[in-house]
Amino acid sequence: MIYNEINFEASPFQYHLKFSSRITIVRGDSASGKTYLFALLEDLKLTETYQKIKLFNYKSEKFHESLADCRGNFIVVDNADILLNEEDRRFINFEKSNQYMLFLRNCDGINLSRDSFAVLQEDEGKISLKREMVTA
Amino acid sequence: MIRLYTNTKHKDLKSWIMKNDWYFNLNTGNQTFTEKERHAIAKVDQAKLTEDKHIETKYGVGTIRNLSSGCKTLLNIMMNPERVVNIDECGKNVLDIIFTMEDISVYMSRPERIDIAEDKEILFNDSDLVIGKKGYENWWTTEYKRREEENDL
After folding, report:
1. In what helix (H) or strand (E) does residue A91 lie, and over which residues does it extend?
2. CATH label of the domain that carries residue A50
3. Interface check A28 vs B, CB under 8 A
4. Is residue A46 part of a domain?
5. Number of domains in chain A
6. Which of A125, A126, B20, B128 is the most buried (most CB within 10 A)?
7. Prediction ipTM score
C-alpha cells in the first residue's frame, strides 16, 4: 500500500480516508463529493507527504499512456467510467506497485475484494470512506 | 417512453453526449435555466442557483461548472431532449429521477438498480419494448446471458 490513510483539513471539512485494499472503488449517489475531493487532492499532492498521488480525470491529456507509465503511485481517477478501457483495467490488476482510488461504477474486468467498495460519508464535517456492502 | 441504448455500435455518436461534464461546461451551461432546472439542481445537489448562474452548496459558492457530474447529466438530458445522453456516471439518486422522465434517449452500458414505475415503457436499442422495473431487469438478465454466450464462442 502506498497510503493506508490520507488525512487533511479543508475547512469546513476534515478528511480521514482509510484504505484497506490496493484498489478502492468509490461509488454512491451523485453529488456525494467525489469530484470535490478530487479537486482538494490537486492541492494535497503538492505536499511532500502526498507527492505520490497522481490524478486523472476527463481533462487529462494522453490518459492511457500516462496511466501506463505510473509506478509506485497512489492513483486517483475521476470520471473513470468514461476513461478506463480494457487495457487500463488489465494494467490496474497487474501493476501492483500502484494503489488506486477510482471513482467508478462499472467494475467489469477489475479484480476486487469485498473491502474494495466504499462511499464518501459526512458526519458533522468529518468525511470518511464508509465500506459499501455489495451484493451479487 | 424512454429510449435506452446499451451499445454504441453502428451509431452516429456525433449527436450523442458521452462526456457530460465537458458538454455541460461548453454548451448546456450557457443555456437559460427555467424553474424546472433550478428545481433539479436543488434536488440533486442541494444547491441554490443565483440569477448570474452561481451556485451555493455546502461545499461553498461556485459556478454552475461546479455542479456534480450526475446533476450535469440530468440537465443535459432535460435541456437537450433530442440527444442521446450517457448516464453511466449517474448515482442511483439521479437515475431514479431520469427513469421518471418521458420522451428521452439515454445510453447505459450496464444495469443499475433503479426504482422504475410498473407502467413505465422502455424501448431498448430501438427494438425491444419492455414495461416497468420487471421488464427492465428481465431484459438485462437476457442480455447478460447473450453476452456470456458471445464470449464463449
Report:
1. helix A86-94
2. 3.40.50
3. yes
4. yes
5. 1
6. B20
7. 0.87
